[in-house]
Design goal:
about 230 residues, alpha/beta, Rossmann fold, seven-stranded mixed β-sheet, 7 helices, about 40% helix, globular
Length: about 230
């Protein structure tokens, strides 16, 4: 595997479209600051339809195309599709190794994913992806004897991530201003037509604006994306 230029942030999203809901406004701000962002899409989203006649394999292709369109609009440098089955992803050594591989390859300062510790109503894929990503960051991506073949055969040296941001958290401690990037966030979400029918988009956009205004209630800006943030001591 070739070594690439390190990125500012690696966004590990359970499904196509989750990152747009969770962090797209912040991604645009980072890109405007000249920082590179890479998406890791963990599942193929092939269960994301209520149409009994929809072919899951075809849906997976559609959702990849939608994700690529959204990422291009946001300025994301690259999208990596791991293509695990929607609603079938598990906390396995193989999946954890895949995430460790991406962390060591892209060497991000920041990793972003779904909060695995949100209680009660939360998609199982979100819980599993969030937990595996956190385990991959510490200690596996850091330790040279964890998955030694990544170092010996692929040349991927250990890497220490500086911070993790978790979206969907009930315990937020970090707010970022997305007032100026709100419309781009919404345009990126609109790319996911298989998930958000165009006729429903205006209503959803209004509800989401109210929600993101509430996230900024204690801030000096109008709209915020909120996260739980943890720093990793070096």
């Amino acid at each position: 595997m070739s070594i690439v230029e390190p990125v500012h942030a690696l966004v590990c999203t359970p499904h196509p479209d989750d990152a747009e809901f969770g962090i797209a406004g912040t991604v645009v701000n980072w890109v405007r600051e000249g920082k590179d962002v890479v998406y890791i899409v963990c599942t193929n989203g092939d269960k994301g339809s209520s149409d009994p006649d929809m072919d899951p394999a075809e849906l997976a292709k559609i959702r990849e195309e939608e994700q690529l369109a959204a990422a291009e609009l946001l300025g994301v440098r690259e999208v990596v599709f791991l293509r695990y089955p929607d609603q079938g992803i598990e906390d396995t050594p193989e999946f954890r190794k895949d995430i460790v591989r991406q962390i060591r390859k892209y060497r991000p300062n920041t990793v972003v994913t779904a909060d695995p510790y949100r209680r009660y109503l939360w998609h199982r894929d979100h819980r599993i992806v969030g937990r595996v990503v956190m385990d991959a960051i510490f200690p596996y991506a850091r330790d040279i004897h964890a998955y030694p073949d990544l170092y010996k055969e692929e040349g991927l040296e250990p890497h220490r991530v500086r911070e993790i941001l978790l979206w969907g958290s009930p315990d937020t401690n970090y707010s970022l201003d997305i007032t100026d990037t709100w419309e781009i966030k919404m345009a990126a979400l609109a790319c996911h037509k298989s998930q958000i029918p165009p006729e429903r988009f205006a209503e959803m956009k209004q509800r989401m604006r109210e929600r993101y205004q509430q996230m900024a209630a204690d801030q000096k800006f109008e709209l915020a994306e909120n996260f739980h943030r943890e720093e990793f001591l070096r």
